[in-house]
From TrEMBL:
Pathway the protein contributes to: Amino-sugar metabolism; N-acetylneuraminate degradation; D-fructose 6-phosphate from N-acetylneuraminate: step 5/5
Keyword Hydrolase: yes
Domain Glucosamine/galactosamine-6-phosphate isomerase: 28-220
Organism: Secundilactobacillus kimchicus JCM 15530
Alphabetized UniProt keyword annotations: Carbohydrate metabolism, Hydrolase, Isomerase
Pfam (any one): Glucosamine_iso
GO MF term list: glucosamine-6-phosphate deaminase activity; identical protein binding; isomerase activity
Protein name: Glucosamine-6-phosphate deaminase
Gene Ontology BP term (one): carbohydrate metabolic process
Catalytic activity: alpha-D-glucosamine 6-phosphate + H2O = beta-D-fructose 6-phosphate + NH4(+)
Recorded name of the encoding gene: nagB
């Protein structure tokens, strides 16, 4: 893993943008995208740039089950707001949270990823070490699957909803195996509340207890963290 420690998420966003720019300059055509507060500064830097994605494809990591694309807390909506309105792609794929047939939806999404191999995947990091919605205990061999969110993730994500009871209990998520197929991976993490997960991801054993630890098995991962998120690393 290549570790880059920055002052704050503003500087991290600029570095994240640089990673996108170099993938873009090297011919990347398919960008794997993530939601959450973490990638926002990177999306802002991309939005302010002259990068053109109108011939490119994006594939998002995950979506809440039960939320339609026009729901303000859906990941479809998030992407529209934070990136696609400013930088449209030729094709943008996000799992369909309104499809009640999990088998059909996850198979459909796996096919999309097979047809559009991801050149660069951006990731955030859950406080419990999750990536996408791959919670601790997830079988690393899984591709896209339906996930029951853990209590800690429901609590962490409740800040985006009016109250905790409105947070969906399930999501469709790319699996760890899907993520590891990406050619290059960029993970960003900011804030003290991510410090334990960052340490476990970078320095801990590779274990299903920390889904992000499987990134140690990937040959081309860039990790951008601020000082607070890096504070538990033994450097
Ligand atoms: N499914 C998303 C993850 O992809 C994201 O990394 C995580 C962290 O969110 P934040 O970046 O807001 O800390 O939240 C959600 O659970």
């Amino acid at each position: 893993m290549k570790l880059i420690v920055v002052k704050d998420r503003q500087e991290g966003g600029q570095k994240g943008y640089n990673v996108f720019q170099s993938a873009y300059d090297n011919g990347a055509k398919v960008f794997g995208l993530a939601t959450g507060s973490t990638p926002i500064t990177t999306y802002e830097a991309i939005s302010a740039s002259d990068m053109d994605f109108t011939q490119m494809t994006s594939v998002n990591l995950d979506e809440y089950v039960g939320l339609a694309a026009d729901h303000p807390q859906s990941y479809h909506y998030f992407m529209q707001e934070h990136l696609f309105n400013q930088k449209p792609f030729a094709h943008s794929y996000v799992p369909d949270g309104t499809n009640p047939d999990a088998v059909a939806e996850t198979a459909r999404y796996d096919q999309i990823i097979a047809d559009n191999p991801i050149d660069l995947q951006i990731l955030g990091l859950g406080q419990n070490g999750h990536i996408g919605f791959n919670e601790p205990g997830t079988d690393p061999e899984l591709t896209t699957h339906k996930v029951a969110l853990t209590e800690s993730t429901i609590k962490a994500n409740a800040r985006f909803f009016d109250n905790e009871s409105e947070v969906p209990r399930y999501a469709y998520s790319m699996g760890i195996a899907s993520i590891l197929k990406s050619q290059h991976i960029l993970l960003e993490a900011y804030g003290e509340e991510k410090a334990a997960a960052v340490k476990a991801m970078v320095e801990g054993p590779i274990t299903t207890d920390v889904p992000a630890s499987f990134l140690q098995n990937h040959a081309d991962v860039t990790v951008i963290v601020d000082e607070a998120a890096a504070s538990k690393l033994s450097r």
